[in-house]
Amino acid sequence: MATEFILPELGENIESADVVEVLVSVGDSVEVDDPILEIETDKASFEVPSTVKGVIKELRVSAGEVAKVGQVVMVIEESEGAAKEEAPEDDAPSSAEPSAQEERQDSDEQEEGQAEQEEPEAATATAVSEAPTESRGQVDLNREPEPPAEEPSSNGTSSGARQLVPAAPSTRRLAREIGVNIQQVKGTGPSGRISIEDVKNHAKKLLSGAGAPAAAASAPAAASVPVVTLPDFSKFGETKREKMSNVRRATANQMHLNWSTIPQVTQFDKADITDLEALRKQLNKRRAEGEAKLTVTAILLKVLASALKKFPQFNASIDMANEEVVYKDYFNVGVAVDTDRGLLVPVVRDVDSRNVKQLAQDLNEIAEKARNKKIRPEDFQGSCITISNLGGIGGVGFTPIVNSPEVAILGVSRASMEPVYHDETFYARLMMPICLSYDHRLIDGADAARFLRWVCEALENPALLAFEG
Ligand code: CAO
Q1: Range(s) within the chain of domains with CATH label 3.30.559.10
Q2: At the N or C end, where does the chain have fewer CB atoms within 10 A?
Q3: pLDDT in tens, 118-141
Q4: What CATH code is assigned to 249-468?
């Protein structure tokens, strides 16, 4: 039997993806779960696995094209007797029956029109169908229902576990585009359903209450990078144009949002890591085969876990709409990873309950996944604070940008030998420049200085972690 294989659901509000590579050719045999397509969305790259066993009969997309969710991307002749994984009809759509996914292809205008008319039940069904996507962009048909998904921000981070809200996709999209956290919007419709008007009113409230420059209700593109009229460069010389990658576009939008909505300040300090570096080198020599290398960033993850516990206002998000501060009781750290596709910020989880050796392993795995395009949208979610360590590359300092809705980011530059004056003598010490950019709405300068000093002291004297961490 020939099965039309459709591009499955990829996550909330993701309607299409770039086809990076078609991993099979006509005539290839595939097993269930064999990767058949590599795709890239704003948030991540995935390998899409086959849900059937059979032989590839026809390819309907090729590398470089854009495929829509629900679109038939190839036809697979199922092997005789091969058991196809069945989905409960109202749970996840099968490859051959793209009903729910086809709806995704409706135009925005249609969606907009429908949005206000949908019953609350329909909204709940939408929310459930947009619960977390599976690892390779494919729905696991046998899984138990999962808890509600988080509402990721455009770089994939979020403020932690939250409930899905009853709102149409178009409403959620508008909220995201104008930088409104839909979790904070009060719905005025039946059963608290959130309408587009509710989102706009919420944005207006934000503007009048907090004076925030971003979320302009009347300008849905406010959170996107503003369009600047460019000169005619050809007057000055040769040029060439390249389309922005999804990662670059998402980074540009998120950075603009962070920069325009967070009044931020950067505090600088230096940590004497002479002794720590000696210890790190010694411990690395004792490493068993296959164990991840102990690096500065892995140690910093542990130090940050303790610092967040000691200074809870750094493990928080600011909720201007309700004039509240959200304090988090979990400890996840986003790590900026330099990849050939650009900056990605996957999250290392529960750093407080892991030792440094485990954190080195976690960091190694997540950075490799980011670099090898194995990262999943959920790997970007739930970060409390971010580390950006450029020390492996070089430099003496920089001012990282706070990643909303977090309130701080630690920036690390390359450690170098410096003369340090102490008791009327200069000593040669390995000094590591560290900085902290922070949201000045919530964090006062004195608190930032204390936080960063504590981080430096913990690096200089790790016993502090046991005493105070
Ligand atoms: N000072 C001196 N040496 C440093 C250092 C620092 N600040 N940071 C790392 N190093 C050392 C490491 O200890 C390691 O040394 P050895 O080879 O002697 O063990 C070496 O440099 C290479 O480290 P690494 O970079 O491979 O590993 P890491 O765990 O420290 O960092 C990661 C991991 C993912 C943070 C890093 O690879 C990376 O991608 N950094 C770029 C982050 C980035 O792009 N930030 C900008 C974001 S925009 O704000």
Answers
A1: 249-468
A2: N
A3: 333 322 222 222 223 333 222 222
A4: 3.30.559.10
Catalytic residues: 440
- Cα distances (angstroms) measured from residue 93 to each of 136, 328, 370: 16, 36, 29
Q: Say if ligand 1 is within 6 A of residue 293 CB.
A: yes
CA gap 145, 141 in Å, rounded: 10
d(CA 388, CA 467): 26
CB contact at 8 A, 224 and 251: no
Ligand 1 pocket: which of 262, 287, 297, 337 to mutate (most atoms within 8 A of CB):
297
Residue 25 has pLDDT above 50, yes or no: yes
Protein residue with least CA distance to atom 15, ligand 1: 295
Comma-separated ranges of CATH 2.40.50.100 domains in the chain: 2-80
Name the architecture of domain 2-80: Beta Barrel (2.40)
Distance in Å, CA 456 to ligand 1 centroid: 17
Ligand 1 centroid–CA 457 distance in Å is 20
